[in-house]
């Protein structure tokens, strides 16, 4: 994967850039936290090498021009987590997703970065609809989806748990 080192998006406090293999350790550590992973329906990487392989094979940027991006603190260049749009071909849909280290929760980073990503998708890529999925018990993520303008659409089965889908249309 060829890495674009330049920010894709910039907000007041954050830079969003493509994820790359140099993020493997942070990416691995982010997924180790059981609280961070609680509502994702995913498991942790078994080691940094597995995280690195995932990042090497991540093809959203090349295929669709978008993807999940590293969220970097402008002030100190710290990797805070990731946020971005993902296209799922078999569903023909774009979804907004985000994941941050727990020490960065409740600081507005998810809202700030997700709002920028949704606006980018709607305005630059002319995406007509973006969805957000969350487990029904994940009140914090649902609050972010609402703050960035997505509206409740429907319930769904989130890998055996109760989930909700929120949506925004251009």
Automatic annotation (TrEMBL):
Cited Pfam families: Acetyltransf_3
Annotated signal sequence range: none
Keyword presence, Acyltransferase: yes
Enzyme class: transferase
Entry GO MF terms: acyltransferase activity
InterPro entries linked: Acyl_CoA_acyltransferase (IPR016181), GNAT_dom (IPR000182), N-acetyltransferase (IPR051531)
Residue intervals of the N-acetyltransferase domain: 14-170
UniProtKB keywords: Acyltransferase, Transferase
The keyword Cytoplasm is annotated on this UniProt entry: no
PROSITE patterns associated with the record: GNAT
Protein name: GNAT family N-acetyltransferase
Organism: Lutibacter aestuarii
Lineage: Bacteria, Pseudomonadati, Bacteroidota, Flavobacteriia, Flavobacteriales
